[in-house]
Amino acid sequence: MRELGIGLIGTGFMGRAHALAFRNVSAAFELPVSLRLAALADADPQRASQCAQAWGFATAHSDWQKLIDDPAVNVVAITTPNHLHFPMAMAALAAGKAVYCEKPLAVSLEQAEQMHQAAKAAGVVTRVGYNYQHNPMIEWARQMVRDGELGQIISFDGEFCEDFMADGQAPWSWRCEAQHAGGALADLGSHLLAMARYLLGDVQAVCADSQTVHRQRPVQAGSAELKPIVVDDHTQALLRFANGARGTVSSSWLKHGYKNHLSFEISGTLGTLKFDQERLNELQLCRAGQAGFQRLLAGPALPGYAAFSPAPGHQLGYNELKTLEVHALIMALAGEGQVGTDFAEALAVERLAAAIRVAAREQRWVQVQSV
């Protein structure tokens, strides 16, 4: 059995999620390759060493380039702040290594274009961390749309809201920097745009509005020194899909009471389908003529679910979705699957986001492919 060496850059929330997924995937699935946790990198050498030991990685680096240069590393997983995605991915691609990068792909459309072209030239597998699409319930929803169970699709209405920046005194972070692809549209909305494309296909045109509500934030918690903020706190957009459907999307990190509210409704001539990531093991379906919505519950009949539980109602969680994403990555690396968002699709998501920013700035409809 061929062995794949995994190199992980970053040890924050997403770094830990990736580490868990790489450790768990072999227990959940029979893989055509074996995995070796070869190297971990973090700018803090002490943390790099501690996490490598705790998470089971063989080697620790404080210089991410050394991880990429490590001959034991075949796959580079990037979980750093957004502005570091480009240099790290480009270096890994130049070394001929597969890249598994967290979303959004880059801090600009120009960078995303270069990353896509470099990946094509390298001829390696790439994946981007839109893990919510790997939920078995999302695949079920997508299949319903494709099978015509909802009839002709009329509309998609999506929202991704959280409240971690709702307090105007919440401190500045790298997410608040425009050059770091900050703002609610990049941080949350990119997941929603990727989901809309995954379920309904290409978006042809957009119109949008955005607002920065809290224009200053403390430089750190409790500080009297304030730093100006220019990224969006919330953005709303209208969408025209290539299939004729119309849509709305809204992203906000200001809405009190929401923690991970990626939700959507798809309405067609034969019914309406609803989903909320805060209840990620359920779909709500109303067929034409029904008095209300029927609850559809996740269970082992759905691909992917049975790898974690043989019984319905036992629930998958965020880390299981990440493990499903890593499984799709490993199968692609083994030449046995094409599931997941690659750099080409992630570029399309970035183009859609860029069009929304242009539409909001210029207050007009924008053709996505003109951006």
H/E element sequence: EHEHEHEHEHEHEHEEEEEEEEEHHE
Instruction: Calculate the mean pLDDT score and round it.
Output: 96
The CATH class of the largest domain turns out to be: Alpha Beta
Q: Biggest sheet, in brief?
A: 9 strands, mixed
The dominant shape is globular
- Count every helix, treating DSSP H or I runs of 4 or more residues as helices: 9
Characteristic terms for this protein:
25% strand; six-stranded parallel β-sheet; 2 domains; globular; 17 strands; Dihydrodipicolinate Reductase, domain 2; 9 helices; nine-stranded mixed β-sheet; 371 residues; Rossmann fold; alpha/beta
Brief synopsis:
This protein is of the alpha/beta class and about 375 residues long.
How would you characterize the overall build of this protein?
This protein has 371 residues and is α/β, with parallel strands linked by helices. The protein has 2 domains: 3-131, 3-Layer(aba) Sandwich (Rossmann fold); 135-315 and 341-370, Dihydrodipicolinate Reductase, domain 2 (2-Layer Sandwich), CATH 3.30.360. 33% of the residues lie in helices and 25% in strands. The chain contains 9 helices and 17 strands. The protein has helices at residues 13-28, 45-55, 64-69, 85-94, 109-122, 136-147, 184-200, 318-333, 343-362, and strands at 3-9, 34-41, 59-61, 75-78, 98-101, 126-128, 153-161, 203-211, 216-218, 226-228, 234-241, 246-252, 261-268, 271-276, 282-287, 294-297, 366-367. β9 (216-218) and β10 form a beta hairpin. α5 runs antiparallel to α9. The protein is globular and about 60 Å long.
